Amino acid sequence: MTPSTGHVPPRWPLKVLTLLIKERYMEEIEGDMEERFLDNLDQFGYNKAKRLYYFDTLKLLRPKLMKGWGGDVRLNHYGMFINHLKVAVRQMKKQKVFSAVKIGGFALGIAACLMISLYINYQISFDKHYKDGDRVFRVVNEWSESGEIGRWTNVHGPLKDLLEENIPEMEMVARVVTWSWGDAGDNHLQIEGKGISHYEEGFFYADPELLRILEIEMVFGSQESALSEPNTLVISRSKAQVYFPDQNPVGKQILLNKNPESLYTIGGVMEDWPENMHFDGDFILTLFGRKTGPGTSGWCCTNYTLYTKLTEGADPLVVEKKTGEMRKSLVIDLLKQNGQQGLEQEAMYQSYYLQPVSNIYLNPEEVGDFYDHGSTDLVWIFGAIAGIILLLACINFINLSTASSMNRAREVGLRKAVGSFRSGLVFQYLSESCLYSFLSLLLGLGFSWLLMPFFNDLTGMSFDIPWLTWWFVPGLFAVSVVLGLLSGIYPAFILSGFQTVDALKGKGVVGGKSYLQGSMVVFQFAVTVILMISALAVNEQFQFLMNKPLGYEKNQVINLLGLDTMEEARKETLKSELLSLPAVSNASLSDFLPVEGSAVHNRSFWLGPVRGVSNGHEAALWFVDEDYITTMQMELKEGRDFRKGEPQNTIIINERMAHALNLDDPVGQQVTDMFDNQFQIIGLVGDFHFESMVGNIRPLALSSGADPATLSVKIETADMGEALVAISEVWEEFNPNQRMRHQFMDQQFANMYAELERSKTLFMVFTILSLVIACSGLFALSLYLIGKKTKEISVRKVLGASLPRLLLILIGDFFKLVLLAIIIAIPIAWYFTETLIEWMANRIPLEWPLFVTGALVASLIAILTVSFEAIRASMVNPASQLRQE
Amino acid sequence: MKKTRLGEFQELILMTVIVLQENAYGNEIQRDLEDRLNERLSMGAIQTALKRMEEKGFLTSEWGETSQRRGGKRKRIYAATPEAHMTLREMKDIRSQLWAAMPNLETSSS
Fold first, then answer.
1. Are B26 and A56 an interchain contact pair (Cβ–Cβ within 8 Å)?
2. CA–CA separation, A64 vs B45, rounded Å?
3. Are A62 and B76 in contact (CB < 8 Å)?
């Protein structure tokens, strides 16, 4: 029945409709449209029919009929998604062990990542809170010689004035003294010069401009004026609350160490500094208008750290250049006037560097200063470890999913037979793995919450799960989705690739993928072996340092602190009183101790009666008394010890210093220091470690004199507690107004290595974590692979194989993998541990036993894991297995 | 008894479907109604109304026969459900009552 005139309706309206109208309506509508066209054609002719056709098309574009407007798409996909979830949950219940391993592994990985990102986030957040942070810098010395750059902080005092006069781009300049010069460091304070002496730390000196440069918020007083009078100080809010509760203490006075020259007036109260600032302090003493000590030293010495705030829009590089030129012209001249030597070299190589304040804490420029730093290395290492653990968990997931895929072959076959496209199946399995990762997200959060206290101990900080930050919940959610997708892609493709007919019959894809499985196991174990060897190495290194002979005896020594409030004569009396106690065998007055927290003093020395032209030898110079060497049980190798009333120009040097000065016979020689003081060497003491043992022993000289605040007491009896009580009673007699402060020298010693101990524990923790994950993966895998072989085992048993022989066969395959892992791991572990400790001056040699132990332990654990299932399978009654044939 | 609102247009279509019996498919409904109302109707309006009433449960539909004229596509035949009949009757009753209550109006019905 051809249309009367042979015309056909135009093509494109239908195309549009097919695109936009719900699929299930299309057949009816198409038919109606065509029929109407033909009717109209007969009635009205082609042109009108065409127009009516277009018209109808347009009028058909109504929400009710269009795609996506409820009713069709949603019904399909939504329903299917629920089905997928149901199936996934059922699968999980069916394969409890596998699911537990998968989810557990992910959860551990997520927990590790969470905690570590908290740590990393904190480390990066230092000094980022300043409003004008991009204009605040620390002025640092830079020595650039043939490509090597060294940087350090200490600069000369008068540099401040020079900079203020010559560099207009520096809006403000402020010096800071944080090390224990004058009243900086810790002191005993008395309110208004009366009453109890309280011990406080956190004193430092600064120019008044510091308050504005570091944007220190003031509670009372103003940034501009709080430190602008001589002998004023600014106190922190929390300390003000302790000593002047709920008042405004401005104008009140504080006396330090009962020293009439250390009388300060409070000029203001500042807000407590945030945790994430690069340095910390509670009491700021002004450098303005000082007559002695800090703030008055000239071009002789570099004692100050310098901060500056640049004007808006100033370019730090330009300013650097300007200051460098200023140094070449003005500074060098002034130094020359002061009699400093070696200036030609300085002019060539030394200049200034402006370090942005936000860099100070993590210190990528490796500036040598007195502050505590975070370590970018540690940040990287932690991050890498978190990533590795997550990777191991993902590998487990992939391995286990593919291994168990055979069980689901029938399901796949059925779905395909009923009409599912491969894409639908992929979607299903991806949503399954997302479900897993979502569950492990919840579990992981639980783990983190449980383990947080332990983690805080480990890092020495106090973290909390940031439930309330805006990025936390969505961020975690996104992470779990990504995780699920990444781990799920491979198994999803494997599963969806089953051939329908084969799958229904019970056969699936065989072979090929066992390579991948095997290599994943090898990877997991290689990582575990590497971590284990590193853990053992760090542990051994730590033990070595702890047990190394020190050249002195640190145990059984109590240091009494805070004697600076007593007069010289009274200190001596206190010392002899204590000596009369039966528990006390020796006592010595000196601020210089070979452990953390003691005084530091360095000078340059030249051999001979005059100061030399060259740079001189730098050595530590300690002021001790005549009982020091015996109290510390150091070894006096040549010459004699100090005597009571020893003149101040005699010194005892250590072996290292003798070596530096090229002295075979040091006793009787003369040296001169940088201040033109002359000393005669009267003795040689055996080298002892007085700084962290990660560095070498430096040259050191002991001299007598100075006004110490520390009394070290050597205890003979085993009962330190009792001795302490006796000592404190004596103290009470002498200083009823001041509480006795003491420390144990061996404790201080241990503190020096707290950081190292922390790394040690960290490594152990991560090794265990990765071991757990790798083993659980291996366990589940062994369950599966050995489970497949039940028939084979039964047949072998029937044919007469013995239990040991069976075990050998079953475990043999796994053993080969572990062996391969070890072979790969050992060279990498060697390189890694070598890099870890090569920078330490006193390190252990990396020898065979270490690697063998690590490898052995790992393999033993692996074999143990596999043998669970192997033994169980071997003991099964063959009859029950073969019955199914 | 649930008060389901039927619009005037929908009511007309429902009744047309019942009238046309086994011939009640999209185009036929449209032609019939266009005749009675003496105005052009759009296919979109008809289709939307049909689908909406199907969702509300007043209509059912099933595939009919194909024809060359329809380019081989099948028709969709609609039928009214018992609910539809009931609702129509209700509305008729309401209208009758109202008409009866109307005060002497010249009712010129054709």
1. no
2. 10
3. no
Tell the residue number behind the tokens 């005749």, with chain if given: B35
Spatial separation of the C-alpha atoms in residues A569 and A563, rounded to whole Å: 12
Range with the poorest average pLDDT among A16-20, A259-263, A351-355, B102-106? B102-106
Helices (H) and strands (E) in chain B — how many of each?
Answer: 4, 2
* Distant-in-sequence, close-in-space partners of A85: CB < 8 Å, separation ≥ 6: A431, A435
CA atoms within 13 A on the CB side of A390: 23
β-bridge mates for residue A138, sequence order: A307, A355
- For residue A384, the surrounding DSSP H or E stretch is helix A376-403
Rounded Cα–Cα distance for residues A444 and A437 (Å): 10
Q: How far is CA A862 from the centre of its chain?
A: 31
The pLDDT tens digits for A525-538 are 888 888 888 888 88
A461-478: per-residue pLDDT in tens? 777 777 777 778 888 888
The closest CB to that of A32, out of B27, B51, B55, belongs to B27
- Residue A596 touches partner B, C-beta closer than 8 Å: no
Q: How far is CA A252 from the centre of its chain?
A: 42
| Residues A216 and A273 sit within 8 Å (Cβ to Cβ) | yes
d(CA A543, CA A844) in angstroms, rounded, equals 10
Size of interface A-B (CB pairs under 8 A): 70
Q: Give the CA distances from residue A704 to residues A622, A709, A736, in Å, rounded to whole numbers and listed in that order.
A: 8, 14, 29
Contact A133, A214 (CB under 8 A): no
Taking 70 as the threshold, does the pLDDT of residue A610 lie above it?
yes
CA distance B93 to chain A (A): 31
- pTM of the predicted model as reported, rounded to 2 decimal places: 0.64
- Residue A54 CA to residue A448 CA, distance in Å, equals 64
Rounded to whole angstroms, the Cα distance separating A397 from A434 reads 12
Please give the residue of chain A at the shortest CA–CA distance from B61: A28
Total length of chain B = 110
Strands A350-356 and A185-191: unpaired
